[in-house]
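Researcher: Please translate sequence to structure tokens.
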Amino acid sequence: MPSLKQAQLRHIAFYEGILWQSNELYLKGAISTNDGLPLFDHNWENIQQGYSYATLLASHDLDAAQFCSKYASSGAFILNLRQSPTERIAWLETTLHYARRYGNRQAEGWHLGNLGSAYRDIGENEKAIYWFEQGLQLFRESKDLMAESSLHSNLGNIYADIGEYETAIDSYSQAKAIDEKLGEKKGYGLTLSNLGLVYLHKGELPQAISYFEGALEVLQNNTEGDLRGTSQALIGMGMASEHMGNSPEAIRYYGKAMGISRLLKDDDTLSSAINNLGTVYFNAGQLEEAARCYQETLDISRKRRDRRGEESALGNLGGWGNFTKAVRYHKQALQLDREVGDTVGEATEFANIGGVLQARGKLRLATIFYNKALEIFRSSNYRRGEIRSLYNLGTVHCDVDDIEQGISYYLSAMDLSQQSDDRPMEIMALQQLGAIHFDLEKIEDAIGFYQKSLEVADTPGDLSKVCQALGELGNAYVLLGSLEKAINAFRQCSVLAGQIKDLYKEGISLFNLGMALREVDRDEESVAVLDRAFTILEQIEYAELEQLKELAK
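Model: Translation complete:
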């Protein structure tokens, strides 16, 4: 009959084998993931017991110490899906100790790299860089190119997190060169996805999309693919689609990423997809859906002790609601940003606080926060944040009747948006410039800006923004006396509004069309169009309907 120690060693060896098998099945990608994860989940309790036995015996038994190290390395990828960062750190610090004690340099290197990843997940960037650089030095000495590539990628992730984009690109490029040399497709695909994110943050959209598409081509491969990597690349494509103003496409990509993440029970990637989906809903004015997404992201992040995800969700939840609650959310997010060294996140919170202050009418104070955000975004080379800060400064200067300075900021936002291919922000800046010149009775200038916004909105097929531009153009043409052009614009606007089921825009554009038809003595058509307008506006209980009816008499 085996002794207790022998029984424990058999348990250790058997369940280390199950862990290795589960991890290998997961790494085989889309075909085998459904086999690897259930196998792991079914045996997870016994795997944890096996690791406990190994640590218990490791100080005086070489085999147990080696198994202790194997548990952390054999299941490195699948454990990342099931353990919180703090749980991973506890395992890895123990296994690193025994790898060093018994001179296992290869295992030591992998534990160093995995420790770096775990510390990055809890936002301790300096510790993460320390562990990554130690691991990188070890693998350079042993000439393990595949491991070296992995650590270059991990360092790239850290530098991207803190806004040092050129350093991140350099790290990723070194990883990419090694992967190409080795023919390592999975690592190559993940590196392409990471490069896509960096170029997206830099505002270089075509380059970002090219990298995301390349990543998906590799990672979706049925035999050598990576489901988790695929979901991350899909999130990148969703962000790029949103950047281009194509919200339906962004929702589609985020939905696919969420489906994969839920299949894998990968809360890290799932929370990222849900958070981004919330932003799409928020920008579309669907605030309840947005709040639901942000709250779910916050719950997942706090459960995982993911400070970076928690910060992002808090910042988003502070985007509306009462003043006190909004400021509290943003201050919590700002504190987390500072703790983890996320300068871009810090700038974002300065901008968010500026928005809250502007909404409360504290315009001078809002300007101070917007300028702080602009300064940090520029120093971090985060183009998208810089554009939004310029736009925000344009709005607040116009609010205090400093129109000339407001126009200057809007023009800067427009120019930078064009350079970065940020179409939603370019359209917003153009339409604000049109509205300002309209109010200044510089109608031809206003028409020029509205016409340009129409052209930009039409490129990605954003019907809502096309509809808005047509309505503004119609109003400008009326004031200029070009009634036939106004009629054409209002008619197109009403048709598009009907297609996208925007009853407010449809009703208002029909009212404007009816009034313009009356001006050119097409009374019969005018009456019919106005009747349709009033029917639609009654349906949505438009507050100023009676005033419109008085105008039409």
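Researcher: Any highlights?
Model: The longest helix spans residues 33-57.
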